[in-house]
Request: fold
Amino acid sequence: MNFPHLLCAFLFIRSVLSDSGTIGINYGRIADDLPSPPLVVQLLKSQGITKVKLYDTDSTVLSAFSGSGISLTVALPNQQLASAAAKQSFTDSWVQSNILPHHPNTKIEAIAVGNEVFVDPQNTTKFLVSAMKNVYASLVKYDVASSIKISSPIALSALQASYPSSAGAFKPELVEPVIKPMLAFLKQTGSYLMVNAYPFFAYIGNTDTISLDYALFRENAGNKDPNNGLVYKTLFEAQIDAVYAAMTALGFNDVKMVISETGWPSKGDENEVGASTENAAAYNGNLVRRVLTAGGSPLRPDEPLDVYLFALFNENQKTGATSEKNYGLFYPNQKKVYDIPLTVEALKSAPSLNESKSKVVEAPPSGAGQTWCVANEKAGEEKLQKALDYACGEGGADCRPIQEGATCYHPNTLKAHASYAFNSFYQKNYRKSWSCYFGGAAYVVTNSPKFGSCEFPTGY
Reply:
């Protein structure tokens, strides 16, 4: 969900049940009408929230949490990965400037190094593990490593296969260069893998094969994994078990996982079927109940689920689809968008939201509210070419139609080819706002692109 410049945070609410998991809430700041950090701290405390995860080290925000008793996870952004990987002197300085002045009055318990790095168009994947190791070495140097964990959130697009869950596997091109070294580092330091999982995006891209009940934790027949016989009643559990299976396949079945982002929008464009207040309340409410009152996933039943909801507020300055602005549990005035329990105590009096209601949600009319991603000529040929190379390479876009002799080879121009590749990447990533950026080399349009007789897809 988030990309490098997003200023986001996650909040933890710990259950009092020893065998249950934890629930968290993203605190995003891409808006011009949000409460001040001190007021946000008051809101968090009123909700019983004791842990927050930031996506930056903004001094004003860190100062607001001083003495609050709320534990924080801060982050080193993607833009600084190359510098962090090159020299420990950089991470020494970063820790001195961003961690030591605040800790321990502001309780900092973890650092997220980068965010969804594998889909970063700036191609920062190669820097990730070295950056993580250098940040950790700096923590050791200043004698705070024992109390601060290091991790890095990954998107589900890092998987080559996710169905059935038991066949989960990471993309081959990521395994040796980054996945295995990162998992080894997490195991060595006693940390965990952060994963961003969105059943909403999987659902809207596959409404013909995925039922809404299955996506919303509602009553349904379930799906049986043909390889191990496990029955999945929720898409969320199927997604995270695919990651567990992928880690196990590489010999890392003892690395824990935290779901660093998941959520459901209360409003969306016409083509974003299922985006509604009712469905957002059902997804998040049923997820909270599942996490706080039950054990782990079907594949890891003894490992409690640690989950962060997205998001605390609706954010009016986010770009892209309407849904991007409407993931919040609260409006900026701190009133609830919908009311769901967030603690074990609140669950006792909350109604169940798991009754099947899939028939009330209809598919959108054909062509309604569709968006595409195209090349921005103003970015210049060099930037367009680099972005095109990334999209067709590491980005995983389907660039076969723009090869010589294929259906979209003509017109044979950089703008046309880049537009097709950018749109393929955009559609494959469920039209999330960050997937049509490419460092300013692309932008979203609402009319179907016209390049000769080539037809641009709106889904995969």
Remarks:
- Confidence is low (pLDDT under 50) at residues 2-18, 358-368.
- Residues 9 and 27 are 4 Å apart (CA to CA).
- DSSP finds 13 helices and 16 strands in the chain.
